[in-house]
Amino acid sequence: MAALYTLVVLYAAALLAGFLAPYSYDDADHALPFHYPMIGHVHIRDENGRFSRPFIYSTTVVNPQRAEYAGDRSAKHPIRFFVRGDEYRFVGLIKSNIHLFGVDKPGRFFLFGSDSLGQDIFSRILYGSQVSLTIGIVGILISTVIGMVVGGIAGYFGGPTDFTLMRVVEVLLALPSLYFILILRQLFGEGLSSIQIYFIIVVILALVGWATEARVIRGMVLSIKEQDYVVAARALGFSNSRIILRHILPNTLSFVIVTATLSVPFYILGEVALSFLGVGIQPPEASWGNMLSAAQQFRVLTDFPWVLTPGFFIFVAVIAWNFLGDGLRDAADPRTLQ
């Protein structure tokens, strides 16, 4: 249940990214690259020790070559709520420019720090979640449909049909997933828009991921098709497609839901890997994978460790999906003691 609540929060944040993020995903201040996180530099007492509205001090550049900064106590910027800023579409539909929090210009509030271009990491994490989290949901829906249909047909008809389909499944399972994904991605070439790349990644991951589910569904169908209600349906003259779709596959749904939940992390990590390697979502669009690409340089890792912040959210999302899948598996197992 804790994993479920965590996922609800993550997906709600992705849905409301434009409102929660103080800046757009491509809003950059090139004068402030690798700015330190300000989450620990929010003040609630003024210079006289009295309580005041939360504020941050202005920033001055100490050493631009080494991205060193210091707080300027001569100027402070109150943190305001429901401020106007960059335009976005609320829940993807309603155009708005109201953001949950922010500071007045020319101040900048980098909650989790900034990246190499001076872009707010917190804002890009929120926008990046729209790609990295939804790609798992869309991908698993496609692969689940393919796996159920192929597994259902193979198990129900058996014989040459079963043999042919299962050999295809075994070929897919024998291929190293990451290398196969990279090869498929390269077949589409360069110069694609981020929307095109998004759908290409979804299709590639779905084509790679359906094989395991198809094999298990096939095993379940082999058992289910011998049940009395399936034999009765055949005796009544129902078509094969109706028997498969109405009587057999619905009885595999408990397994399908559990397997789909456990498989979502594969899609999230697949997108992260492609974007990290530079063949996925391309900047300036944000995804958790391309945000981590900055961490490939040793100096960046040692001097600016906050660039790894997207990795924390990847870890949380993957662990939460795995825990949720484990919980659903226990709940769906009739042998589990309640």
List the helices and strands and how they pair.
Elements: H1 2-15, H2 17-20, E1 43-45, E2 51-63, E3 68-78, E4 80-90, E5 94-102, H3 121-132, H4 134-157, H5 159-174, H6 177-187, H7 194-224, H8 228-235, H9 240-248, H10 253-276, H11 288-292, H12 298-303, H13 309-332
Antiparallel strand pairs: 1-2, 2-3, 4-5
Summarize the structure.
This protein is an alpha+beta fold and 338 residues long. Helices cover 56% and strands 14% of the residues.
Key phrases:
single chain, 338 residues, alpha+beta, 3-stranded antiparallel sheet, two-stranded antiparallel ribbon, 13 helices, 14% strand
Describe this entry's structure for a reader.
With 338 residues, the protein is of the alpha+beta class. The chain is 56% helix and 14% strand. The chain has helices spanning 2-15, 17-20, 121-132, 134-157, 159-174, 177-187, 194-224, 228-235, 240-248, 253-276, 288-292, 298-303, 309-332, and strands spanning 43-45, 51-63, 68-78, 80-90, 94-102. It has a three-stranded antiparallel sheet, with no helix packed on it. A two-stranded antiparallel ribbon has the order 4-5. Strand 1 and strand 2 form a beta hairpin. It is elongated. The mean pLDDT is 86.
